[in-house]
Design brief:
The complex is a heterodimer of chains A (288) and B (330). Chain A has 288 residues and is α/β, with parallel strands linked by helices. Chain A has ten helices and ten strands. At the A-B interface, loops of A face loops of B.
Chain lengths: 288, 330
């Protein structure tokens, strides 16, 4: 009997809960840290970005109206699924980053823990960002948080799994939906993460992942009038300026890239969640 | 009676060639009408579907796309046919019909607004001398299930209120039962009641089940005096489709050759995106010819399509994708 041929995975995009190829038909070669061929990944075009924004917009009403408890459960479910694929992510990180198996295992564990940590925040973020305001009049004055809307995220180029999880989770846990441009150098863990998301009860369209050139796709997202905020964490200085200028047209919220190199293993704090929240304040008469 | 031998197959999905028989004789009785309509060559369903799909793949870009978008805007019959329509909603829609994008004066007005008869007066007043026409559905829209007297009265009401175009529905029950003469006489009676108003005849192709029936209904409507043939009410699914519109465009092309009178076509319902609209324009150009690429001869019945056309237009003008937050809801 002849030797069996391995069945290799086709890495595609993740849009609206489905895995389409790029509309442009383009792909690019992804290499390991040692320069060996790993796979061909889809190279997303601006039209894929447009489709992804439409999918994220469609998913927004349902996801933002879901209860915080429900969103937290789903994020916890994502963590469960990620844990179940630990071995697969470890080998992908070893290939992509050239780290040892032990270090890769720590990074995957940290990504799982990061999801659980953010899952817990789903019904607590209101407690630290909402308030009962003292006002000079016979009113209850209450401020509560609401999600911003569709957020375009440029994921960090380094830390292809932990960094990616650390930018997606805080955006969606509060009820936003997102379009993520994955690390150009190491996009394969992002598509494997998409397989995790697709099997975690996360409604299609809440997270959309594009692989390819951030410099090509991100300015289209930043200029898109139906995108409400951009997270430029993974953009280089030049791209960040271009995107911020494009984002000014409809006054998008912008999260600038970190000024010092991010340490993704450190305690993330709540900044990434609060960056994409709006505050709604209600005046309610007390009566006499 | 018109002999079948005078017809031959030409062109795409089976078309009718010139005939010398006077079409007036055709409607002498139900049997002559039946013989004529059933004598029309059958439509090759697979061929029509394939040709429509093939034409749908044409790539229209840059300046051609700009022209197509503006032409499509000029062809829109902006429609609201809901039980919940109010005078306020119709006035808002009329304002949008005249200036589809208030921030950009280079956007042309649409062809017409289409409303129920009781709101025609409101629309006429709101549109004033803007040049946008008022179309009204009539004849017991959308089912068409009423007596001829009621249908004619419905038409007279709309015309008296100032409607320049009447969209009537045919009696699909009678058509499917083979009672072609009833359908013919109703169309002729409504046409007479229209006076100077243009008559669009809605075939409701979603209920006619076969392309052969679409071709027969198209010819029946044209012989009875229709100025336009329209696919659907928008209340039945499927509404307008490319192959059905292809069959109707072939019918108007052949009718012009046969009878020497030009009839317009209006697909309505289910056309929501600019891409769809441009596919229809390609279909018109390749089937009936560029003579039909004019709001006088081709219309798009739609409501949500206009916003997508405006968003595409803005995308081409500004180079950034437009969002629905910046256009009026409808």
């Amino acid at each position: 009997m002849s030797e069996r041929l391995a069945v290799r995975k086709t890495y595609k995009l993740f849009i609206g809960g489905a895995f389409p190829r790029s509309e442009s038909g383009r792909s690019y070669v992804v290499s390991s840290s040692k320069g060996e061929f790993l796979a061909n990944a889809s190279k997303a075009s601006r039209k894929d970005a447009r489709e992804a924004v439409a999918a994220a917009r469609k998913a927004f009403p349902g996801w933002s109206a879901a209860t915080a408890y429900n969103r937290g459960q789903i994020l916890y479910r994502v963590a469960e699924m990620l844990e179940g694929r630990r071995g697969q992510f470890v080998s992908e990180l070893v290939d992509a980053d050239g780290v040892g198996v032990r270090k890769a295992g720590e990074l995957v564990d940290a990504a799982v823990d990061r999801l659980v940590w953010y899952a817990g925040w789903s019904d607590k973020i209101g407690a630290i960002r909402g308030s009962a305001n003292p006002v000079a009049g016979p009113y209850f004055n209450l401020s509560s948080t609401e999600p911003t809307g569709v957020v375009a995220v440029v994921a960090p180029q380094e830390a292809p799994l932990l960094g990616l999880v650390s930018v997606i989770a805080p955006v969606i846990v509060t009820g936003n939906t997102c379009v993520v441009v994955a690390s150009e150098r190491a996009p394969l863990p992002s598509i494997t993460l998409a397989e995790v998301l697709a099997t975690s009860d996360l409604p299609g369209g809440v997270v959309n992942i594009l692989t390819g050139s951030a410099a090509e796709v991100a300015p289209w997202l930043a200029g898109h009038m139906d995108v409400n905020a951009v997270d430029l964490t993974g953009a280089d200085a030049e791209l960040a300026v271009t995107c911020e200028e494009a984002a000014a047209e409809n006054l998008k919220r912008v999260l600038r890239p970190p000024s010092v190199k991010a340490d993704w293993l450190a305690d993330p704090g709540t900044e990434r969640m609060t960056a994409f929240l709006e505050t709604k304040t209600v005046w309610h008469p007390i009566g006499t | 009676m018109v002999s079948l031998e005078s017809f031959g197959l030409v062109g795409d999905a089976g078309a009718v060639s010139t005939t010398t028989a006077p079409l007036a004789e055709v409607a002498a009785s139900n049997s002559t009408l039946r013989a004529f309509l059933h004598g029309l060559p059958g439509v090759d369903r697979v061929g029509a579907d394939a040709r429509a799909a093939m034409l749908g793949t044409r790539s229209i870009k840059t300046t051609a796309k700009k022209q197509a978008i503006d032409l499509a805007i000029r062809m829109v019959d902006l429609t609201t046919l809901e039980g919940a329509d109010t005078p306020g909603k119709v006035k808002a829609m009329c304002a949008k019909a005249v200036h589809p994008d208030p921030t950009d004066s280079s956007v042309p007005s649409v062809a017409a607004v289409c409303v129920y008869p009781d709101l025609v007066a409101t629309a006429v007043q709101a549109l004033g001398s803007s040049g946008v026409k008022v179309a009204s559905v009539a004849t017991a829209f959308p089912s068409g299930r009423s007596s001829l007297e009621v249908k004619v009265a419905d038409t007279v009401l709309a015309v008296a209120a100032g409607a320049a175009e009447i969209d009537m529905v045919i009696d699909r029950g009678a058509f499917l039962a083979g009672d072609y003469l009833t359908v013919f006489e109703q169309i002729a009676a409504v046409k007479a009641a229209c006076g100077s108003a243009h008559l669009k005849v809605i075939l409701e192709t979603g209920e006619l089940s076969t392309y052969d029936n679409v071709r027969r209904a198209s010819w029946l409507a044209m012989i009875a005096g229709a100025d336009f043939i329209k696919t659907s009410t928008g209340k039945v699914s499927p509404a307008a489709t490319l192959p059905v519109t292809l069959v109707m465009l072939e019918a108007v092309r052949d009718y012009l050759r046969t009878a020497g009178r030009k009839v317009g076509v209006k697909p309505a319902g289910g056309i929501r995106t600019t891409k769809d609209a441009i596919k229809y324009l390609v279909l018109v150009n390749e089937t009936a010819g560029p003579d039909w690429l004019d709001p006088d001869w081709f219309r798009l019945g739609a409501s949500s399509l206009l916003n997508d056309l405006l968003m595409q237009r803005q995308k081409m003008a500004t180079g950034r994708y437009a969002g629905p937050d910046y256009f009026t809801l409808d």
